[in-house]
Amino acid sequence: MLDRLLGQLRQVVEFACWGRPLGSTILWEQHLNTINRIHEIADRIEIRPPSDNKEPQFEQLPEECVREVLLRLADHQDLERSAHAWGVMARLVDELRIWRELCQFHFSPRQIQSVIDNSPNTSEDWQLIYHKLRKCYGLREEYAEMIQLCRNCRCLFWHSIGHPCIADTDPNFMEKLEDVDKSSLYVPIPPQAFLKFFSL
Q1: Which pLDDT value is given to residue 195?
Q2: What is the pLDDT of residues 62-77, one digit of tens each?
Q3: Which Gene Ontology BP terms does the record give (predicted)?
Q4: What are the boundaries of each domain within the chain?
Q5: How many whole angstroms separate alpha carbon 175 and alpha carbon 158?
Q6: 71: CB partners within 8 A, 6+ apart
Q7: Which of 125, 130, 144, 163 is the most exposed place for a label (fewest CB within 10 A)?
Q8: What is the per-residue burial (b if ≥16 Cβ within 10 Å, else e) of 34-69?
Q9: Is 159 in contact with 121 (CB distance < 8 Å)?
Q10: Percent of the chain predicted with pLDDT > 90
């Protein structure tokens, strides 16, 4: 696949218009040299499949794949624990991109900008910005599914399962709800709020 892409790229670079490539000759030569260098590196790559009696290890993943794993963590504590687990992950956790995307996941652009405006010296330190935002606004809660509270019958239920509601059996009640946004009838209940139902 890589050889084919490089071959196609070389054809594009070598394509002549009016007898010669358009643009700087030196620039085109640099492009060709770069393509040839990539081709030489690709020729030296040896792909060895794992043996049947040995399972692939996480440490064998390329750094780019490990970075993608870290980018999918939504908790700073998970990132910090990952940094203690492996030196490569520790180096990646220190990258600005990891913390910048974590900020963008949990906080709005306005919230981020407000912290940057109030602390101009931290505009490049996304890890520090994240912790300031966390202390100021708290973290965004993300769950696969939350319990819902029906405003009609005060029933708690899983949205994916549904529930028998009074609105489904009472025609008079149904008439009252004709002009109501149905999505507003169900209130998501986060775990912390659910636990408060049982607090004394």
Answers
A1: 82
A2: 888 889 889 888 888 8
A3: protein ubiquitination
A4: 1-16+24-43, 62-137, 147-197
A5: 25
A6: 97, 98, 101
A7: 144
A8: ebeeeeeeeeeeeeeeeeeeeeeeeeeeeeeebbee
A9: no
A10: 6
